Amino acid sequence: MIVAERRALSEILKNIEPFEKIMVLGCRGCVAICSAGGDREVAILAEAIRLGRELQGKPIEVEEETFIRQCDPEYLEPLREIKNRVEAIVSLACGVGVNLIADLYPEIRVYPGVDTTFYGANLSLGEWVERCRGCGDCIIDLTAGLCPIARCAKNLLNGPCGGSKGGRCEVKAEMPCIWHEIVERLFKRGELEKLLELWPAKDWRPAGGDGLRIRVREDLRDR
Amino acid sequence: MEQKSFLQQALESGRFVVTAEIGPPRNADAEIIKEKARILKGYVDAVNITDCQTAIVRLSSLASAVLIMSEGLEPVLQMTCRDRNRIGIQADLLGASALGIKNLLCLTGDHPKFGNHPQAKPVFDLDSIQLLNLVKGLKNGRFDNGEEIKGVRPYFFLGAAENPFAEPYDFRPYRLAKKVKAGAQFIQTQIIYNVERFRKFMERCQDLGLLDRVYILAGVTPPKSLGMAKYMKYHVPGLEVPEEIIKRLESAKDKREEGLQIAVEIIQQVRDIPGVRGVHIMAIEWEEAVPEIVKRAGLEVKERAYEICAPFVVEKVVEKIVEKPVEVVVEKLVEKVVEKPVEVVLERIVEKEIPLEVEMGGERLPLATLIEVLANLKASLMNIKTGMEALEEGIAKLEEEFLGKREPRPVVRKIPKKPETLIEEGRPVKEEEVREAKPEVEEVIEVVEERTLAEVELREEEKVEQYEKPKLEVREEVKLELKEEVKIEELKPKEEGLQVRPISGIEIRGFKGEYRPLSERASKIPQDLYIERATGEIREVVIGRGDKVLRCGGVSAINFHFFEGEMRNGVKIAMEILDVKPEDWPEGLAKYFEDVYHDPALWAKKCVEVYGAEALCLYLLGTDPNYLNLPADHAKKVAEKVVSAVDVPLLIWGSGNAEKDVEVLREVADVVGERGALIGPVVEANHRTLAAVAMGYNIPVIASSPIDVNLAKQLNILLENMGLGLEKILMDPSIGALGYGIEYTYSVMERIRLAGLFAQDTKLQVPFICSIGKEVWKTKEASLPSDNLMGEAEARGVLMEALTGVILAIAGGDLLIMRHPKAIELCKFLFNALSLS
After folding, report:
1. Minimal-distance CA residue of chain A relative to B176
2. I need a labelling partner for B619 at 20 to 30 A (CA). Which of A27, B188, B215, B410 fits?
3. Which alpha helices (H) appear in B457-556, and where do they start and end?
4. Interface contact flag, B161 A162, Cβ < 8 Å
5. Which pLDDT value is given to residue B300?
6. How far, in Å, CA of B442 to CA of B637, rounded?
7. Amino acid B303: pLDDT
8. Is A134 left (phi over 0), alpha (psi -120 to 50) or beta?
9. Cα-based torsion angle of the residue sequence B172, B173, B178, B184 in order, rounded to the nearest 10 degrees
């Protein structure tokens, strides 16, 4: 899922400083699952904003709303009404949602309520760890399912650097050296030859080096 | 342009080669690089130029390599993938080749996290193996995209690094094989200390048939100091330093000499390993070591000096550098190197080899004159240096004279156990006086002791026996009585039997209700609404040495705000004892110590063994000129007794008379210095001398200032200017007891603490010490008798002391000095309660 994290309250308060009526708008997609922008977080943030503004001596009216998703135009329809009632929207969706609102409703002042961080897995309650970088050219078929692009700090492609120690990464010691794990697994599977191949320099265009990435499926498009 | 580098030629000739390493400076000073090159010239076949090693910005490796060549030394250009993508890398490589650089070492590079710009975007478009492959392509006339290079192709003798000591060990030889496959012609290994592991690595390489296809240079580094060896062992990933090396350095007298010896021995060992074709000596910021190692390892080669004369004509650079901008020079170099065959260039060198004149500012000077001028300059510099040293010595002598002792010189620190010699050395003139004065002093002490003892109890010996013999029994009694007393609910006014009992009937009851942690109570409020994390941290000060030390400070939040940071050491309490019998202690306090008043050693023992004191504060009240004015020698004797009686950390608190304290604390430091005791109070008037004493014994001090933020800060600065580190200072803000100005104390302490934690005021990031007992027990209320209005006397005193303690701990107090055992118990109980969070 896309993992996000609520921004500092002071940032949010600064953005909405001139307004007296706003809406905190959540999303029931990824950000709800990673506890950054679902119904519950909307309620908490709305309350915090009210409290914060009260402390500043400038009370504010905060509406609370959560959409099923913010990355599909049809779910954003209610904004046609909402935009007449509030001066600004703080969206707790990932950056995709905020952008889509800004695209479709240019007259709405929309501010991000979260920082969108990475594509991660929920390893345990309250812990998310990056697992994919969306580089557009999947190579994990060759690396025992473990991605060196996302999980090696230097995104190396030809094996571990000289800083791996005790199977730990030198850049972030709490993380395993992913190349160490890849090597061990492939050794065990007897697929050493995969490691001995020279891995050519990666083409970074599918990772976004080519400009905005677009995917089209002609068969599904409206004619 | 396939002119082979000298390094390649030397390796191909089968000679055992030596390469070294130069780290460019963190500025634009070409002279630094040239100087380093001059040190190495003639001793190495080529020298590596690092590419912003450990991700710290430095003069670029490419420019440095050109400067090295101007000194007639052959560079190995290091290139990493950290800062450039494949476009930048290829451009730089074409440039390097055009400038005549012929050796290239391809590295992935250290992650920016380890450098001085951790915010930078790491590039890593390629890794080291892909880089090798790319260079191989360039040599074959193809860019990385497959496009053909039309015109001159770059040529490099291509190298890579490999680390036999990084896990997974089994994979390392294969990785080396990959590098060879990608184009590596030589390998420089990671620093070798574990020769056995390296030998195994080489055997595996042999098995894989690599040793015929690549030259391997063994990496060697002379450890410059024990600290460096330990740093490499524990902090450099992928570097193995066996315990044996550490031990050798530890026991060596001359660490540098031992470091050189270690390097030489390793070279001799690796030289015999099949496949090792040379060594790569990395003497980090210690270039002078390289010639020495080369000589001792017997690697000096005569022909090197001839070979290394750069093919690249540099005489123009030498000539023009004074007056013309560098661009011109570079143009010339490029022209020559690219266009003209080497032979011609060599001829030119021969022609120009010994220029007899040098052009300077338009004038032509004979070379000899220039050499003379430079030599003169160097000599003058040396003179200035000697002058500085003489000045320093003079200042030291002055200090000696004024301070009377030599302790501030760290060299003398090692012999604090010889008081007589020190006195004789430090004050030669007064030698006789001192000797004459001694007996007098002793007499005085005897008199005083007799007097105080007489006041306490005439039968001194009996008393001592009473306490010393049944030590264990006494403790048992105490415990039993405690249990009994706990049952008594009311605070009973004391009756006749109390005097005998060590602990009175004051009971500490618990709190009612159940504690709910803050995070639970505030669960509905976002944390950033109530949490304000400090940006600074209060330093940790260590009192004492060895097993029993007292650590104070180390606080990263307002005291007890555990939801915002930590209090690593909590609030510490030292129990106060006196050097003389106290005269004004109210009965409720006195009764706990009356039996040991006569002997500070017993007093100290009782505090530790019966009341569990974790530290003791010896208050030298008797030395106060306004009280008994006892001499320094008395204080010294008392300190000796206490030191030999207990092993807990000690605090020594002088009389507070600035002049007398210098005299007294200097003597006492001689006794307690080895124990690492805390001494004070140091005030502005005597900070110079006492700072010197503290530095001499390497002990911490109490910096005492009249209750004021700026004065506290100023004293810390003064002490720091004297050379005493802030980690050796505890601040005594001068406190007031409950009802005697505690509000003001609180406010000042709080302001100091907030400045340290939140306003980056580093000079105030020092823990507080508060002398609570002194202030509380001299108040009128603490000694008024029990009556209906004021309640029971002892309980009143205990509550006053405990409340003062808790209030000041909340204000920021880190180390409290207290007197009453029950007050201490109560304080600890409350601190525990405050620590729930």
Report:
1. A196
2. B410
3. 460-468, 471-487, 518-521, 527-530
4. yes
5. 84
6. 10
7. 62
8. left
9. 110
Nearest Cα neighbor of A157 from A142, A170, A171, A169 is A142
pLDDT band at A99 (very low <50, low <70, confident <90, very high): very high
Q: Across-strand partners of B76?
A: B48, B103
Chain B: closest CA distance from residue A124 (Å): 21
CATH 3.10.310.50 for domain B6-220+276-310, yes or no, is: no
Domains of chain A: 2-118 (3.40.50), 135-207 (no CATH)
Rounded to a whole number, what is the distance in angstroms from the first to the last CA of chain A?
31
What is the Cα–Cα distance from B520 to B218, expressed in whole angstroms?
60
Q: Do residues B117 and B57 lie in contact, with contact meaning Cβ atoms separated by under 8 Å?
A: yes
pLDDT score recorded for residue B413: 40
Q: In the 8-state DSSP scheme, what is residue A176?
A: B
Residues 796-815, chain B, touching A (beta carbon < 8 A): none
> Which residues of chain A are within 8 Å of residue B129 when distances are taken between CB atoms?
158-159, 198-199
Mean pLDDT of chain A: 94
Q: Is the minimum CB–CB distance between B188 and chain A shorter than 8 Å?
A: no
**Residues B175, A159: C-beta atoms closer than 8 Å:** yes
Contact B525 A196 (CB under 8 A): no
Kindly list the residues from chain B whose CB atom is less than 8 angstroms away from the CB atom of residue A201.
Answer: 86, 125-126, 130, 133-134, 144
**What per-residue confidence (pLDDT) applies to B473?**
39
- Measured CA to CA, the distance from residue B146 to residue B143 in angstroms comes to 5
B153 and chain A in contact, CB less than 8 A? no
Helix (H) / strand (E) element for B202: namely helix B195-207
| B181 neighbourhood in chain A, CB within 8 Å | 198
Alpha helices in B616-697 (DSSP H): 632-645, 658-672, 687-697
Could you give the CA distance from residue A91 to residue A101 in angstroms, rounded to a whole number? 9
pLDDT at B366: 61
Q: Are B222 and B259 in contact (CB under 8 A)?
A: yes
Per-residue pLDDT at A121 exceeds 60: yes
- Stretch 506-535 of chain B: residues touching chain A, C-beta under 8 Å: 524-526, 528-529
Determine the angle formed by the axes of helices B460-468 and B471-487, rounding to 10 degrees: 70
Which segments of chain B have a pLDDT < 50?
Answer: 1, 305-356, 361, 407-504
Domain B425-832: which topology? TIM Barrel (3.20.20)
Q: How far apart are CA B353 and CA B806, in angstroms?
A: 82
**Shortest CB distance from A153 goes to which of B111, B161, B166?**
B111
pLDDT value for B368:
64
Interface with A, mutate which of B121, B127, B197, B530 (most A CBs under 10 A): B127
SS3 B592: coil
B170 reaches A (C-beta below 8 A)? yes
- Tokens 């092993």, residue? B647
Cis peptide before B681 (omega within 30 of 0): yes
- Cβ <8 Å between B526 and A45: yes
A–B: how many Cβ contacts below 8 A? 115
Residues of A with Cβ-Cβ distance to B136 under 8 angstroms:
none
Task: State whether residue B435 sits within 8 Å of chain A by CB.
Answer: no
Residues of B in contact with A171 (CB under 8 A): 111, 113-114
Q: Please tell me the predicted confidence (pLDDT) of residue A16.
A: 96
How far is residue B242 from each of residues A162, B278, B353, measured CA to CA in Å? 18, 23, 49
Contact B238 A170 (CB under 8 A): yes
Is residue B259 classed as helix, strand or coil in its secondary structure? helix
Asked whether the bond before B168 is cis by omega within 30 degrees of 0, the reply is yes
User: In Å, how far is A126's CA from the nearest CA of chain B?
Assistant: 16
Crossing angle of the two packed helices B226-235 and B243-251, in degrees rounded to 10: 160
